[in-house]
Amino acid sequence: MNDEAVPLLEARAVAKHYGPVVALRSADLSVAPGEVHALLGANGAGKSTLVKCLTGVTRPDSGTISVAGRPARARSPMHAARLGLSPVFQDPALVPDLTVAQNLRLTRSSVDAVRSQLSAMDLQVSFHELVGDLPLPILRMLDLARALTHDPQLLILDEITAALPSDLAERVFDVMRQRRESGRSVLFITHRLAEVIATCDSATILRDGQDVGTMEPKEGGESRIVEIMLGPEAAKAEAEASELDEADVPVAAAAGEADAVLEVDDLKVGAVQSISFTLRRGEILGIAALEGQGQDELFEALAGQRKADGGELRVAGEAFRPRHPYDAIRRKVVLVPPDRLLALLPQRPVRENVAAPLYNSARRWGPINMREEGKRVRRAVDALQIDMRAAKQVRRLSGGNQQKVTIARWIASGFAALLCNDPTRGIDVGTKRQVYALLRELAEDGAAILFFSSELAEFPLVCDRVLTVYGGRVTAEVAGAAADEATLLQAMHGLQLDEAVA
Amino acid sequence: MPEAIERESRLRGVQRFLVDNPVVVLAGVLALLFVLTDLVNRHEVGEPFVTWNQLSTTFLVAAPLGMIAAGQTLVMLTGGVDLSVAFTATAAAFATAWQGGNGTTQGILAGLAVGLGIGLANGIGVGIFHVNPLIMTLGTSSVTFGLLSIYAGKSFEKVVPGLVATLGSDRFFDYLPANLIFWAAMAAVLILGLRYTGYGRMLYAVGDNEVAARLAGVRVWQVLVTVYALCGLFSAFGGLLLVGFTNNPDLGLATPYLLQSVAAVVIGGTSIFGGWGSYSGTIVGVLILTVLGSLLTLLNSEEWQRQVIYGGIIIVLTAIYARVSGAE
Amino acid sequence: MSATAAAPMEFRGAAPWRRALRLHGWTVAVWLVLLALVPYWRSLSEQDFKFDLSSLAIDALPLCFAAMAQAIIIISGGIDLSIGSLMAVVNVLSAREMVDMSFGKAIAFSVLLILLTMLASGFTGVVITLTRIPDIVVTLGMLFVWQGVALWIMEIPGGGVPIDYADLALGDLGTTGIPNATIAVFAALLLVWAPIRWLRPGLAIYAVGSNRNSAYLSGIGVARTRVGAYFLAGLFTGLAGLALSASSGIGDPNSGTTYTLNSVAAAVLGGVSLLGGVGGLIGVIAAAYVLTLSKIILLLRGTDPNYANVYQGALIILVVVIGGLLTRKTRS
What we know:
By secondary structure, chain A is of the alpha/beta class. Chain A has helices at residues 47-54, 77-82, 100-106, 111-120, 136-148, 166-181, 193-199, 217-243, 252-255, 295-302, 325-330, 350-355, 370-384, 399-413, 429-444, 458-462, 485-492, and strands spanning 9-18, 21-31, 36-40, 62-67, 70-71, 85-88, 123-125, 154-158, 185-189, 202-207, 210-215, 260-269, 272-280, 284-289, 310-315, 318-319, 333-336, 417-421, 448-452, 465-470, 473-479. In chain A, the strands form four sheets. Chain A has a six-stranded mixed beta sheet, with helices on both faces. Chain A has a six-stranded mixed beta sheet with strand order 17-18-19-14-20-21, with helices on both faces. Chain A has a four-stranded antiparallel beta sheet with strand order 2-1-4-5, with helices on one face. The two termini of chain A are 38 Å apart. The model of chain A is unreliable at 241-255 (pLDDT under 50). Chain B has 328 residues and is mostly helical. Chain B has helices at residues 2-20, 22-44, 52-77, 85-99, 104-128, 133-153, 162-169, 178-196, 198-208, 210-215, 220-246, 257-267, 279-298, 303-326, and strands at 171-172, 176-177. In chain B, helix 3 (52-77) packs across helix 9. The model of chain B has no long low-confidence stretch (mean pLDDT 88). Chain C contains 13 helices and one strand; from the N terminus they run βααααααααααααα. Chain C is globular and about 65 Å long. Strand 7 (123-125) of chain A pairs parallel with strand 1 (9-11) of chain C.
């Protein structure tokens, strides 16, 4: 990088954890004046946390941040703007019930300046509109225009293009080029590698909360970026996969003939444009996707949390239109949600948490057969090896044990199809291993499991086959054994796979 | 150093035990309060307060509050609150006295039906139409009060059925209040029911985390509608005991019990946010309030001081419980 | 890559009339309801219009102020159940102290009382933001505390206010015949709320009620703004309590009981969403008049005054249910 110049932004060893979860281990980032710098990494690598630390939304636990050589730790987003760092966040920072003009007044932005920034981008927006009435892409552009009025030394764009149609994304790229021409810098966070290669001068790549490499995207190309994103982990994962017994290695062919438990035909819901697949008895089907590609809606629709907009679902060959989680549970389609806080009763004991679905119908509101319940709960607790030492309140358990509780309840009440939406998020490696083994065991006993994970290394360990989803559609189907990270990443970014892999 | 750590961890263990079992602390507070009242009584009146007769009276006075606070406990376990309990109890008392002339059964059924009806209305508003529980129950309270003041103004023969009067005011063997027997039976049903029935589990589940309850397949509205209906029913029981005690229904019959029911539940360690607590805690809370009431009466304290004390208790205890349990 | 040859893009949300309807439709509708009630009211009443108008304005005065206070807090994302009993405190304190005061002294004392009320209400806000207990619990506790304080100050109704002081609420403005009570409401609206509403502090109140996260990212001090809303609401609560004294001419520790619920009702009926961030005070004033006028009409029709409680309770539930259904529809 530019060794001769003082970097505009210099972050050293920035670390942040939320409770027991380490979001950022130790990240360095250096952005030179006049460059467009990309910040890359898989889901959960720590990109958003780093941005939040830089812009004063959260306070880092340790590390130093300096702007133009001077220490500069922002206390709030407004303070960051005064330091010359203007962020455009992933969530729009515009208040929905106020008009655009009122929002600008709220942040003491000049209406004329914002208007001229917008017209420089060939956009016209009536400032009398309520923000809540405007479509998301326009809000992103407004946020961008507002950030530009500060003429920041460093413009930080957190996944701004994810919600933009291509013509608006082009305008953002134009802005980025103009910033570079006028000697300002841009920090660009995105999942779209093609954009990085087309627009960025250099890139820093994060993995597991650490920076693992800085490179020039134009030289290396996508494959090089993917390589760094994977790092030695990929090799390790491969080794792990081969460590497993031959018998444990998923056999995709056998599953092809088993009974279909859950059939999804042309499902449309939210960001899901059209997804079809069949989940069979005894198989674990992986869903690999970048953030916000429709996987959450897919799980919600299958679990009855959300009504599908279109398409057909069948369970065991019969039509399935769940309108409430109860409907799904009755048909033995059950969900482990991505955030365990959504599924837990934090103040209640493990036993009540595990047994909760047993009494979800008013017909079972009567006296509990305590012995029968105890037996069921114990079986589930034993199967998952839940640490019962702090069982009086689930919130006192470790994250891993809490996650086990969310799975245990379905083992206690029984299921045909288990929908696991990121079941290993934020839990330790040992527990993860246990979860993998348990899922395989369940599948061998005849369960059908749909499995999403934000950690790509898990797919070959767990799944019989993997579907990659991009833009609400299935882009590829990969056999479990062949689902290495490089292949998945390519397909998850909407890139064509080599015929041999698919 | 290690000693300090050990002491600290033992301290944490004690703290955790007390958080898990607020009833232990509360029973201690109750005992202290009895002793204090006894001392004050000896000083002011020259007689001891802790006598069989006074104990019996304490329970006799506490039982109606115990009933009304039972409904309030159930509702607060789900994270709601019912501000209509006082007028529901009064309305039930009036209904019983109004139909009392037509027979005991009819009188009692009329009272309970009124309570159940008001509770159902609350439940439908909160559970199905998602009206904020405070506003819903204040609204039904206002309607009930209006209707009551209209019908109370009309002259009709008020007959408190004998059974209700016996239940509300008689004592067996000199010291055993009839309403205590009723209260004890109800308390057993409630404490066991909350712990050992599916419905009890669902009350806690809905109050602790409504989203999680829904994800476990619970139809939350069913739980809410029934819990408010039950609360109406328990308020009606409380009203019946009250009118059995006074033998004369009037508009202000249960008015003080609204605030006291909320205070009793909060004192008893039931979280105002739902999902945590027990009826046994509430029982101790009810007794504490009753003895506190006797003490305040002895000290010639006025209504305003009680109001301030009760209001303060609600805020301070909620803050303490929130802090202690949030520290986990 | 591409040169920006694309045509300028223009974005519009809803058509302007639609937007206006959404923003102001409810307010206009409430005022129309109020106007529609007038002919019916006139057909029932045998008094002359000026007299009736004046008594309506006087009757509605405390509720107008109480509803404005409640609306400000609800807009900021909270709710205050203690408004009624805090009003009662102001009512009894003013009636006890002012009864023998000169007009000038009474005015000075009123200003002092309003300042105290603002501090009291601000204190509630501080407790809420410091302890992070929900508004509804803290203000429920404060409801009882203030009620106790009111009883402490005055056990049974009594006291009074100087006649010329009462005239501030009861009189008319010279020859125009406009009741002072109406002028007071609109003066408070224009002099206190209007300047704040359109400046940064007012926008911050809306922002915090609308979406706390966006508000924070926009650089708003969320806790500060919430406390500020309670502080400002205290001003209107103080006015409401004084209005109660001036219009009734007496202090009554139980005078505030109906105002808590009615202030919430007027706020919701006036177009303020219980979810926060939506609505204004102009509609709320109309709603307060509608609630008061409907009670007057019931009385004129010879209905038992106790039915007023029944109708109002039912009306409040109905309004909240309908309001809830409407906002859920537009938000989803």
